[in-house]
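Reagents: none. Just compute today. HTH crp-type domain-containing protein.
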Amino acid sequence: MPTPVPAAANRLIEALPHKDRRRLLAGFELVELTFADVLAEPGERIRHVFFPTTSYISLITPIDGCASLEVGLVGDEGMLGISLILGVDISPLSALVQGAGLALRMDAAPFRRELAFSPALQGLLKRYLHVVMGQLAQSAACARFHVVEARLARCLLMTQDRAQSNAFHGTHEFLASMLGVRRVGVTKAATALQKRNLIGYSRGNIRILDRGGLEAASCGCYEADNATYARGMA
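Predicted 3D structure written out:
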């Protein structure tokens, strides 16, 4: 059963003026998201919006029906269902829970009513949509031009930020699917990061040992993503 909402723990909601934030929170329920739950599928109607608090969600695009690529990651800095700000209630991407935890959830219909009622919410989410568009473009360029080891380092840094912990779960099979490469490619990249004592890896459990070293091993897309968010949400 959903539990009562105690407070906002999502950066988008916390950025709202007090009156708008209080009204919006009254319409949410706090739900537990389970690892590997599918929250949206491409071409399907958006039934709920999610504002993660302690969970995080992979945004995935299918390729030729037999492969997939992660193009985004949503944690407490963002939301799932942003296309509703454009009046579009069809999901463009698949959304898969990568990190179990809590999220604020609201049905799509009352959320659209909140959008119509609150100019502050509209303005905030328009800026966030702009950020998402920039990050999607960055992910496309990253997948095309950067080597697997640097992309894996970026992926692990992004995950650590949203997990709010140095330790989290991620099997080689799952990481390979997210990066759009073969499992052997992820294994080779992860082993290289381990040999440099940047990460520890055992039975699907990943631990960040050297955050600064991992940032140095990552491509510039990690910094670019953070800069895009900082500029867009300032």
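Residues 146-233 form a domain with the Arc Repressor Mutant, subunit A fold (CATH 1.10.10.10).
Action item: order primers for follow-up constructs.
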